[in-house]
Amino acid sequence: MKQVTPIQFAAGQERVLWPLFLLIPFLCLFGCVSNKNLQPEAATPDSEGGFELADRNHDGKLSKAEASDFLVDEIFNSKDTNHDGQVTKEEATVGDPTAAREFAKRDANHDGVVTKDEAIAYGRKHGLAAKAFKEADKNGDGQLTKQEVQAYYASREGPPR
Fold it and tell me: Does residue 75 fall inside a structural domain?
């Protein structure tokens, strides 16, 4: 099996790249053509697409909190490699010591692990998806419809194929 080495970043680059790591799940949630997230509910194995999963109150719209919570949940689950419901510094940094600062910001009680509740609270407080959410919310009502989400994605990547 081929061994993959971590990407090395110059000092300061992590600040520029951190928002990109947050934008990737946002785009996948709202439009990845090869992902179940743009497909209708019936087309997915579990009968729910990404929009439906994010729409926790099932009103057909995403609030800022729903979008943020879903994104944080997706990122958290990808980092929690042993699936114990918490992310350790080792899991979060994966050999990148510059990521330790970002981990420390999320570890609210400074116990050396980030729980999902801590991650969600940080995501809500710091508005991790705020800019993309605002751009996608064309009618300015503070909620995203599936059509707004698809239009936002299409404006960035082109229409779904």
Answer: yes
